[in-house]
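Protein Entry — a single chain follows
Next Lines — sequence and tokenised fold
***
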Amino acid sequence: MEPLAQKLESRRVFFAANEYPMKLIRLPLSHPEAHRLETYAGLLAIVAIFLISLLVPPFEQSRFTMCLFKNLTGVPCPSCGMTRAFLFLGHGRILQASALNPLALPVALLLLLQGVRLLLRLATLADYRLQLSPFLFRILMVVIFLLCLGLWLFRILSHFHVIPSE
């Protein structure tokens, strides 16, 4: 077999042998009281983020930035615009949020999933984790890294007017 065909065949055998490339694991909490404060703090933070995004009106431009990287270098980081993007998401303006930071919607979805996980932890006194196969985990990490790197390169190039930003 060709090397690529061998790799693909080994991946097929891997998934067939392990049945699922990902699974949900339920771990009972050994000390539920010890995890209760952590759970409430996480839920409070997530609720606060979503409440602020609902209550604060979105604004197009900001006179200042909270980004330490941008304040020090003048160059935007991959998460620049995330705060304003969340404000737009909170008001249902998904396109404007994506224009400010394309990572805002995936981050909001991850926060929602984390909130559901924390609510499940409170209700069942067990922790739930999504376990990915090592192969799938590596692919996911590479994709996330490349997306962040691509976004950052785009922002740097548009900041220095190498490519038009609008």
Observations:
- The longest strand covers residues 22-28.
- Residues 37-59+67-131 form one domain.
- The longest helix spans residues 134-159.
